[in-house]
Amino acid sequence: QLTERLTGALKTLRGQARLSESNIQDVLREVRIALLEADVALPVVKEFVDTVRREALGQAVLSSLTPGQAFIGVVHQVLTRLMGEQNEGLNLATQPPAVILMAGLQGAGKTTTAGKLAKWLKEQQKKKVLLVSCDIYRPAAIEQLQILSQSIEVDFFPSFAHQAPEEIALAALDHARHHYHDVLIVDTAGRLAIDEAMMQEIQRLHQTIHPVETLFVVDAMQGQDAVNTARAFGEALPLTGIILTKLDGDARGGAALSVRHVTQRPIKFIGVGEKLTGLEAFHPERMASRILGMGDVLSLIEEAQRSVDKTEAEKLAKKLKKGQSFDLEDFKSQLQQMRKAGGIGAMMDKLPAQLSRGLAPGTAAPDDHALRRIEGIINAMTPLERRRPELLKASRKRRIALGSGVQVQEVNRLLAQFEQMQKMMKMLSQGGMTKMMRGMRN
Ligand code: GDP
Ligand code: MG
C-alpha cells in the first residue's frame, strides 16, 4: 500500500535536512511501486512520477525547512491535479427531458447507480425523474430497476425482454416528454467483458437518444482492468463523465487516477455503498488523500522532523554540559530550529514561565523573514567570529553588514539578541536544557 511504501521511503529521509536529487530518487521509486500496487496504470504512474520529480526538485521543496512534508505536498498536489482539481457536477442544461445514459460492464453498478442518481436528482435538485431499463438480457434486470424506483418513489417506465433497446429508449423518451419529466435515466445491459456486440448496441442507443450525459460506471475494485474497460468505452462513446463505484470497500482508489487519465473525462460521483444513499460527489483532493493515506503519512513526517530536532538539541546540550559556551553558530542553529517550530512566538509560548520571564519584555517575535535575515548576517561572518563574537568590533561589523546587505544597526541588534540568548543558555546549562527542549516539543 502506498501509505506503507511512503512510510518506509520517508524513513530513509529521516535525519536528512534537505532533499536532494539522490535521496529523492529513492522515494520516487517507492512512490512508483506504491502507485502500481494501488492499481494505477503504468503510463499514468510514469507521467505522475516525472511530474513529481520535476516539481519536487524545484526550489520550493529543496529549500523548504520541512522537505519531507513539502515533498508529500507536491505528491498530493500533482495527484489532485491529475484527477481534475475540483468537482464537476452533472450537466443537465438542455431542453428537458435531459437524458442520462449509463454505460459500463455487468456488475459495475449501473443499475444501482441509476437508482442513486434518481434519488439524488429528486431530493437534492428537485427534479422529476423517469427511470427505464434497456437491459433485455439479464433475467430480472428490468425488475431490479423497477424495485429500486419504487423504493425511492421515482417514476418507472416498463420495458420487456422481447423489445429492442432503442425501441425501449425511444418510447421512454416520448413518455418523458409527454409527462414533463426533467430527467430520463437510461440503464443499459453490460457484459462480463468488453464485447463488440455490446459496444455496437450502446453506440446505437447513444445515437438514438442523444444523451446530455453519458456516464461510464466502473468498479474501483477492478484495479488494473479498469483501464482497459475505460479505454474501450471511451473509444466507443463520447463519454461526459465517470462514476467510480464500490469505494466503500478496500479499494485504494488508484483506479480514479487511471480512468481519468485514459478517458480524459471528469469523475463526477463515487459509489460508497450498496444502499441508495451511497453516492457522493467526487472530490479530487479527498481522493488524493485517500490514495496517499494522508493522515498516516503526515504524522510520520512530523515524527521524522521531531527526531531531527532532537538530535540537534542533544548535540547542543552535550556541548553546553562540557562547559563550552554558546556561540553564534549555535545561535544560528537555534534560529533554524525555531523556524521549524513555527517561529519564536510559538516557541516562547512553550517555554516554561520562569524562563520566558528571563527574556527582555516586549521583545517582538521575529517572523520567518526576519529569521532568515539574521541567518544571512551570521553567514557573512568568519567561523572564528562566530565562535568568538567578542572580536566583532566596528570594522568587522561594517564588513559583515556589507556582506549580508544590511545596515550596521541590524548587525548590532542581532548581537544584542545573541547576548540575551547566551545568557539564557548559561542559565539552562545547569541542567535545564533538555527539559526546555522537551517542553518545546509538546
Ligand atoms: P450493473 O450490472 O452494472 O447494473 O450492476 P448492479 O447495479 O446490479 O450492481 C452490482 C452489484 O454491486 C450489486 O450487488 C450492488 O449492490 C453492488 N454495488 C453497486 N454499487 C456499489 C457500491 O458503491 N458499493 C458497494 N459496496 N456495492 C455496490
Ligand atoms: Mg444492471
Automatic annotation (TrEMBL):
<keyword id="KW-0687">Ribonucleoprotein</keyword>
<dbReference type="InterPro" id="IPR013822">
    <property type="entry name" value="Signal_recog_particl_SRP54_hlx"/>
</dbReference>
<dbReference type="Pfam" id="PF00448">
    <property type="entry name" value="SRP54"/>
</dbReference>
<dbReference type="GO" id="GO:0005525">
    <property type="term" value="F:GTP binding"/>
</dbReference>
<feature type="binding site">
    <location>
        <begin position="187"/>
        <end position="191"/>
    </location>
    <ligand>
        <name>GTP</name>
    </ligand>
</feature>
<keyword id="KW-0963">Cytoplasm</keyword>
<keyword id="KW-0378">Hydrolase</keyword>
<dbReference type="InterPro" id="IPR003593">
    <property type="entry name" value="AAA+_ATPase"/>
</dbReference>
<dbReference type="InterPro" id="IPR000897">
    <property type="entry name" value="SRP54_GTPase_dom"/>
</dbReference>
<comment type="function">
    <text>Involved in targeting and insertion of nascent membrane proteins into the cytoplasmic membrane. Binds to the hydrophobic signal sequence of the ribosome-nascent chain (RNC) as it emerges from the ribosomes. The SRP-RNC complex is then targeted to the cytoplasmic membrane where it interacts with the SRP receptor FtsY. Interaction with FtsY leads to the transfer of the RNC complex to the Sec translocase for insertion into the membrane, the hydrolysis of GTP by both Ffh and FtsY, and the dissociation of the SRP-FtsY complex into the individual components.</text>
</comment>
<dbReference type="GO" id="GO:0003924">
    <property type="term" value="F:GTPase activity"/>
</dbReference>
<dbReference type="InterPro" id="IPR004125">
    <property type="entry name" value="Signal_recog_particle_SRP54_M"/>
</dbReference>
<dbReference type="InterPro" id="IPR042101">
    <property type="entry name" value="SRP54_N_sf"/>
</dbReference>
<keyword id="KW-0694">RNA-binding</keyword>
<feature type="domain" description="SRP54-type proteins GTP-binding">
    <location>
        <begin position="266"/>
        <end position="279"/>
    </location>
</feature>
<keyword id="KW-0547">Nucleotide-binding</keyword>
<dbReference type="GO" id="GO:0008312">
    <property type="term" value="F:7S RNA binding"/>
</dbReference>
<dbReference type="GO" id="GO:0006614">
    <property type="term" value="P:SRP-dependent cotranslational protein targeting to membrane"/>
</dbReference>
<protein>
    <recommendedName>
        <fullName>Signal recognition particle protein</fullName>
        <ecNumber>3.6.5.4</ecNumber>
    </recommendedName>
</protein>
<dbReference type="GO" id="GO:0048500">
    <property type="term" value="C:signal recognition particle"/>
</dbReference>
<dbReference type="InterPro" id="IPR004780">
    <property type="entry name" value="SRP"/>
</dbReference>
<dbReference type="Pfam" id="PF02978">
    <property type="entry name" value="SRP_SPB"/>
</dbReference>
<feature type="binding site">
    <location>
        <begin position="245"/>
        <end position="248"/>
    </location>
    <ligand>
        <name>GTP</name>
    </ligand>
</feature>
<dbReference type="InterPro" id="IPR036891">
    <property type="entry name" value="Signal_recog_part_SRP54_M_sf"/>
</dbReference>
<dbReference type="InterPro" id="IPR022941">
    <property type="entry name" value="SRP54"/>
</dbReference>
<dbReference type="InterPro" id="IPR027417">
    <property type="entry name" value="P-loop_NTPase"/>
</dbReference>
<comment type="similarity">
    <text>Belongs to the GTP-binding SRP family. SRP54 subfamily.</text>
</comment>
<keyword id="KW-0733">Signal recognition particle</keyword>
<feature type="binding site">
    <location>
        <begin position="104"/>
        <end position="111"/>
    </location>
    <ligand>
        <name>GTP</name>
    </ligand>
</feature>
<comment type="subunit">
    <text>Part of the signal recognition particle protein translocation system, which is composed of SRP and FtsY. SRP is a ribonucleoprotein composed of Ffh and a 4.5S RNA molecule.</text>
</comment>
<keyword id="KW-0342">GTP-binding</keyword>
<dbReference type="Pfam" id="PF02881">
    <property type="entry name" value="SRP54_N"/>
</dbReference>
